[in-house]
Design a protein that fits this description.
TIM Barrel; five-stranded parallel β-sheet; two-stranded antiparallel ribbon; 41% helix
Length: 325
């Protein structure tokens, strides 16, 4: 700071002389450009590279780091953004559907954000695809058969409104719910996974265009099991895929492990922690800081955890808006 002050003093006479010989510069009409990594209008643009965190080659890629901010998504008065993973349509009798979740939350004017797989794609279905001579083509054939049901479920959710406000968004959670942690580029599992990710994005583009023409949607992705790739080559390749699709990975700060325990009490505790701007897991309980809490639940466990979540909705917190990375 002292050096800058000294330079300012030395330059002052020269600046004054130049000011006397020239007209004052016109005021800047346009604000400085916002870096793409901080501009909500550019974050989801297909083909837009966001580089690495801090523009440091040693740091993670911005598109695949599991951020815990949802740009443009207001923080609700009950403290946490509610997200629900996995299939929109129940695969097992007794499981809940995404439409049930959205309908119940609508009564409380609450938004529901879904990270979806394609329905009826079990581990056995994936096993058969990987055994075929052309796994990628076989995957597309299977996904094509599931598309009508998936599209109907997505479009039904996108229609739901509370007054003029849409209450649901649907994002990408891979087609086959594959654990990507140990995937390697060139493997059939990885290739099939990418086929599924691209397929879901095509379906979502089509559904949003049909239900909300002209709507500029966000493009979030959640890794199954919150497991991002371990290997550097896979991370590099996946970043290129995400760049082409305009995807951003999203994590979570509140995880009650509902799909393991089906506990309404733990679901409530996770949201109660969010009220205090704290993270939550059943093991660590409320801990650390979660400035913009994102709660992770699962669609199929809704009927059993619903009492805890609805109890939490009764607690109010002043709404705030999520910021940039």
């Amino acid at each position: 700071m002292k050096l800058l002050s000294l330079l300012g003093l030395l330059m002052a006479p020269l600046c004054a002389q130049e000011a006397g010989n020239a007209e004052a510069a016109p005021p800047e009409l346009n604000p400085p450009a916002i870096p793409a990594a901080e501009d909500p209008d550019l974050l989801f643009e297909k083909g837009r590279s966001l580089g690495r965190v801090g523009d440091d080659d040693r740091k993670p890629f911005r598109r695949i780091i599991q951020r815990t901010l949802m740009l443009g998504e207001p923080r609700p008065e009950y403290g946490a953004i509610l997200t629900f993973d996995d299939q929109l349509i129940p695969a097992i009798q007794g499981d809940s559907s995404a439409l049930q979740v959205a309908t119940d939350l609508k009564i409380h004017h609450a938004r529901a954000i879904f990270f979806a797989n394609i329905p009826d794609n079990s581990e056995e279905v994936l096993h058969q695809i990987l055994k075929s001579p052309s796994p990628g083509q076989e995957a597309l054939k299977v996904l094509g058969k599931r598309k009508p049901a998936f599209m109907a479920a997505v479009r039904a959710l996108l229609k739901i409104k509370d007054g003029d406000r849409y209450l649901c968004e649907v994002f990408n959670h891979t087609a086959f719910h594959q654990d990507m942690k140990l995937m390697k580029t060139g493997s059939d599992r990885y290739k099939v996974c990418l086929v599924g990710i691209r397929f879901i994005e095509e379906c979502l583009d089509e559904a949003y265009q049909a239900e909300r023409p002209g709507f500029r949607r966000a493009r979030y992705f959640r890794f199954p099991f919150l497991h991002s790739p371990k290997y550097a080559a896979t991370r590099k390749d996946l970043n290129e895929v995400f760049t082409g699709l305009g995807l951003l990975a999203l994590g979570a700060t509140q995880d009650s492990k509902d799909v393991l325990n089906f506990s309404p009490d733990l679901a409530f505790d996770s949201l109660a922690a969010a009220q205090k701007n704290q993270k939550y897991t059943p093991t660590l309980k409320a801990h650390g800081e979660a400035e913009e809490p994102i709660a992770l639940f699962h669609t199929r466990s809704w009927s059993r955890i619903k009492p805890g979540i609805l109890k939490a909705l009764a607690k109010k917190k002043p709404a705030t808006s999520l910021g940039a990375e």
